[in-house]
């Protein structure tokens, strides 16, 4: 993890200030775009001087890094809650519970997810790696869950890695296209219908090839 310069020795205060900076910066970037804002404008939106802002960060690029890292941490925390909330349940129940928590996290922090998705192509190789690692943790979590369902016989054999990637795509669709999807779906309805469709796919019996007899 990259070290960001600060002139404060109070770790708790630094984390508090940086979380505030991340939230305000994301709101500002969502309205104007990352390349169209400067640290002075951001400092004003925070009610701080530019010097006060630089007390907790070293550069504008640090803000980008903080947003990416914050989004990554949100995903990791959501997965941890998924494990706790569905401990001891079957694979289908764990999948349903984890998707609910995952999509609720995406909804609550849509600006962060959208920002990271939209700036991916302009990120440095180092910062792209942070995003890839965060998504890989989600894919690995769901791939493991799906494999456990296959091993227990609850799910039929399929490509768990591909389906795990599809789950991430379902979440990204809500983040990126929520403005349209919300015309037809509440978050609960979207989550339930996507989960039902996914479970129907992986719990149904494989069709045997038809052929002429005799």
Helix content: over 70%
What would CATH call the class of the largest domain?
Answer: Mainly Alpha
Classified in CATH, the superfamily of the largest domain is Tetracycline Repressor, domain 2
Low-confidence stretches: none
Describe what is shown at a glance.
The protein is 72% helix and 0% strand.
Structure description:
By secondary structure, the chain is mainly alpha-helical. It folds into two domains: 1-58, Arc Repressor Mutant, subunit A; 60-203, Tetracycline Repressor, domain 2, CATH 1.10.357.10. 72% of the residues lie in helices and 0% in strands. It has nine helices and no strands. It has helices spanning 11-32, 39-46, 50-53, 60-85, 91-108, 110-119, 125-151, 160-181, 187-203. α1 crosses α4 and α4 runs parallel beside α7 (125-151). The mean pLDDT is 86.
Structural key phrases:
214 residues; mainly alpha; Arc Repressor Mutant, subunit A; Tetracycline Repressor, domain 2; 2 domains; 0% strand
